């Protein structure tokens, strides 16, 4: 509890909207009870003695002043500014570096930055920084498009990292041509007067072609791609070992009706479902997960490679697997009609979805049928097609149990964010020709509920054994973030308590479902939360309303799950469970959280590139969108169809429109018209900047008229939402 209070205090006091208050008011703001106050005060005193916080003017609590300089990792923004993330975690968070003070730093560099005081705001000192030294370059390679200019041959970098063009010399050495995508090694870094100098080390192909674009993102994100010979040899040996293994040591469930449900293009089937009744007519859910730890031994070359990769990467049209294909798409994958080794989690439920008991086993199974989500949905709607009768019966039982579990979890406080995903339609050459909303039919929820239940079951078991393990954690949002969320929601017409609980958030999300405001409100809620990460810290999973949680159900594609499988092996074999692994697991957790984010970024970037390539051919056409962000330089609008975000710059809005930060809106002088988050808007495509991943838009109709219409609708809907939300408080 003491460490938890420390983290709460530092996060609250370090928030940008915090105003220094006395300790008693700080405790009240954090919702500290009388019973916990003594422990809270003890945590506060330890932070003060360690120099993290100080008692300032009028006995108010604030962060210790920043002095001198900090060392950290720099990340650049194309607007000219940047941030430095301190090497040693600091309550002040990332340091803002204004335009003109970034020096020659590029994203990924380790830099020293001088602290600059910018005066007090709201009673708290504000700081910026100035890069004074590059201590270590993050990477000496960039990926970009080759072009010819009056300055000579230049490579214009892609993405959000390195910003300035790089001058290259002899392009003929690698056979590069104008408009080729190339990898450049930096020879000399840029100065205030001169471009950086580099040499082309690899030609990826013609810009705009699918293979070129995907390879450029793989190179730029530094995603491991090829497996070395030792890894491939170990994978083949593991597959051969399976064929000669004695199955008698495992439970034989090959006669059970067990099925898999996955996307149509999936090949790594790592989870399967069975559902039966016991002698007391209680439902017994079986979640059967590929037994990857049988094939991948700890400390092997295969294990080390999987650890470094962290996870599989799913890009549009290509998968970069964590394990070699002979395992991921072969002997580990729960293919229909094939015997496969699994770990089974059996959970017994009563009629209300309450857990009556759990059992764990190592099994050998045989999938009765492989279904896609679409096939499962059609079967549930009475269009069974090729679905076998016993499988259709199983599906109906699965749906009934899933709805019971979902109802119970919602009652417990589970939150469901509705952030629609876009599915791309591609031609044979890998070009995007269209897009549509991704399938969200109920079979997706069935599998989600069952996987969450299995993950929770394994985490609960490991907790009961008092063992340190890799958890999937999602901390509870801090009080200051909830206060800021309430403020932003008020600017778009929603009444929301400053100290909101789960039911308030559930009511809010339900009230916007299916409206224009849905995307913006869901994004605001998401941004008010911390990101879920991998860590041995026992803080639970807030969004799932789960006290014990880990990832267990996808060991083919996630290294975190493989770590958990090995602990379950030790338990099932009656071995002593390892102790004192917290430091190692903490480091591993940071790494696989990074690789997870890297994979998400690569997928999102490739989707953006492919959509922008298509939209380049539709300049001047209209896009229906929703306002998802506002800043002093423009309005961010998300396309309803393509899910991509574009921007209307302040120049395009015109001189009569001004940004009001406190109200978080743009308003037109004289007319009273406004632009706010969640507002629907018709836009027109002006231009596409592929290297910067930017879509530039203008309003498709007079904003005074459009905004006034939107304003009226928002008021009417806002009034209804306030009434509906009230019952949840």
Describe the structure.
With 729 residues, this protein is an alpha+beta fold. The protein contains 18 helices and 33 strands. It has a five-stranded antiparallel β-sheet, with no helix packed on it. A five-stranded mixed beta barrel has the order 8-9-10-12-11. A five-stranded mixed β-sheet has the order 13-20-19-16-15. Helix 4 runs antiparallel to helix 16 and helix 13 crosses helix 18. The relative contact order is 0.08. The C terminus is likely disordered.
Structure characteristics:
729 residues; alpha+beta; five-stranded mixed barrel; 18 helices; 34% helix; disordered C terminus
Compile the SSE list and pairings:
Elements: H1 2-13, H2 23-29, H3 34-49, E1 53-55, E2 61-63, E3 69-76, E4 82-86, E5 95-97, E6 110-121, E7 124-136, E8 141-149, E9 152-157, E10 166-168, E11 180-188, E12 196-206, H4 210-220, H5 229-243, E13 251-252, E14 259-262, E15 271-277, E16 283-290, H6 292-295, H7 301-309, E17 313-315, E18 318-320, H8 325-331, E19 339-349, E20 355-366, E21 369-372, H9 373-380, H10 389-412, E22 422-426, E23 432-437, H11 442-464, E24 471-473, H12 479-490, H13 502-512, H14 517-528, E25 533-535, H15 559-572, H16 582-615, E26 622-631, E27 634-639, E28 645-649, H17 650-653, E29 657-660, E30 665-668, E31 674-675, E32 680-689, E33 694-699, H18 703-726
